[in-house]
Amino acid sequence: MRGPVKIISLGEDGYDEITRGFLDKYQREETYGNDTLIQLSPEHVSSDRIG
Which among 8, 34, 40, 51 has the fewest CB atoms less than 10 Å away? Predict the structure, then answer.
């Protein structure tokens, strides 16, 4: 994948929502996520997968 990225740190807009969604999806009990999230907006996706 290629495209622009955005770094989202603790305390920034969207951080809590993304972290909570991840922890809920994977049924994790932590009250925190990662210190920093990286959001990739794909502009180009390629694959060498055959079959």
Answer: 51
